[in-house]
Structure formats: structure tokens, C-alpha cells
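Hey, can you fold this one?
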Amino acid sequence: MSHKITVSATINADAKKVWNYYTHPEHITQWNFADPSWQCPSASNDMKVGGKYAARMEAKDGSFGFDFEAVYDEIKEGENFKYTMPDGRQVQVDFKENAGQTHVDVAFDPENQNPEEMQKGGWQAILDNFKKYTELN
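Sure. Predicted structure:
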């Protein structure tokens, strides 16, 4: 891929909490959807190089759903990780704490089925949902 799309959020929580809420399945199922009409009924995360991440995302009315999967390429505990999706696209997630807040950047290779603005909007909505969940819990 020639370029990445990046979405960002600053969460009012320390990096340890943000990392844990982003990577532990019991939290992932609470925030990993872009819209309140969607849900993430299941998630698993084998957080090691070569380990697999999997999350089921589906409309609450059952009209549509899909499995999001990836394999970890690099992990720097508490700082960042990289993974590759089955179609070869890569994602990097960075966590930077400053004065009790944590800035999260998610940079991903775009797919070619949907417009990039739509992809960016969807990934940003999920990250915004993560921010809201983490700050309220």
C-alpha cells in the first residue's frame, strides 16, 4: 500500500488503563462498533507476536455481520502494536501518555471496496466509542 489512513483520539486515562481496555476481550466487546445499532458479541485476543485477534461485529437486528481477524507482527507492551489482516493490509496502533491522558493513533492500509473517507469515518467512530467507554468505566 502506498499510504495509510490515520484516526486519533485523546483519552482521559493513563496509558495502562487505555492499553488494557483496548486489548482485553471483556472490554473490546463493549466498544468495538461504530454505531449503537451494532454490537460486538464476541472477541478473543492472543496478544503475542504470531497470536490472533478476532472480533465478531454485527447489526443488533441480525441483518448483517462479519468477523474481523488479524495476526500480530510486533508488540511493544503499553506502547504500540502492529498486525496484519487476512487480505494483507496492515494496522499500527500507538499509545502515548502525557499528563494523565493517552493519545491513541490507529494507522491502517485502506481497502479498495469503499471510499477512503467512509473507511476513515468508520474507524474513527469505533475509536470515539472506545474513548467514551474507557472514560466512563
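Strands lie at 5-11, 38-45, 52-59, 65-76, 80-84, 90-98, 101-108. Let me know if you want another pass with a different chain boundary.
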